[in-house]
Amino acid sequence: MPDTHAIGADPNTAVARPQVTEAQIAEFQRDGVVCIRGLFTPEEVETGRRGIDANVAAPSPRAKVASAPGDPGYFLEDFCNWQDNPQYHDLIFKTGIGEVAGRLMGARTTRLYHDHLLVKEPNTSARTPWHQDQPYYNIDGMQNCSMWAPMDPVSRESTLEFVAGTHTGPWLMPRTFMSHEAKWFPEGSLGDLPDIEADRSAFDIRGWALEPGDAVFFHMLTLHAAAGVGNRRRRVLSVRFLGDDIRHAPRNWTTSPAFPGLEDELPAGAPMEHPLFPVLWERDG
């Protein structure tokens, strides 16, 4: 049985959940990705499902469809809903995931960056192409972490895959997923991604079949991708976390997600000390 300990904002309601081990911390630091089994209880998974279903039923203005019109399925993404979705709020603030992220990052403080909904309906063929996350964002710094938590069983064929070790850089050109345009950094200013699918054996690719309650944590520079899904729905809540060295990096273009007006309140190079990015966990001592 894995070691467990109680984490959560309220010690009277905290539940025993897998402890982040030194081996998992070392794995995250070395490979830029680690899988943690059984992180969420069945009740918390149900909370996540309710939150996702409410989000799908009433997407925010930030939502976008990431599948082509002719796709037999449907791929929906949405962002930054934790303030309006009580189930997302509970999962982020009451389950102790900020501590998990903080210990993996080696940070003294964990801040919330944003939540990200990813739902692939049955028979969605759209791939999530290989990419890094951080070049799409308005942040600089190495202490960061994303959680990818499915609320449905995910097969090895449909799971998120990673190229271990790519979190050390370099930054590679972010492109739109469907048209492959360089809408963020100017064309030629960053190197392009290698053609991983052309020779998968040349890369150290990691991926796990996952059950509801499992979660994968990865660095925002770790290359990752996912295939389409079969006849099973795949509901995922992803949460991004910021550590001690993260600084605001306003861009001359619209980031994904966008934080309109933030550059007027948070100067370039400033720590992310703003109500949009609340502290989730602080290390004792």
Task: Write up what this structure looks like.
Helix content is 17%, strand content 25%. It has one domain: Jelly Rolls. Helix 2 runs antiparallel to helix 3. The chain has 285 residues and is α+β, with helices and mostly antiparallel strands. The chain is built from five helices and 16 strands. The strands form four sheets. Strands 3, 4, 5, 6, 9, 12, 14 and 16 form an eight-stranded antiparallel β-sheet that branches. A four-stranded antiparallel β-sheet has the order 7-13-10-11, with no helix packed on it. A hairpin with a 7-residue loop joins strand 1 and strand 2.
SSE order, as H and E? EEHEHEEHHEEEEEEEEEEHE
How big a fraction of the residues is strand? 25-35%
Question: Over all CA atoms, what is the radius of gyration?
Answer: 18 Å
Euclidean distance between termini CA atoms: 30 Å
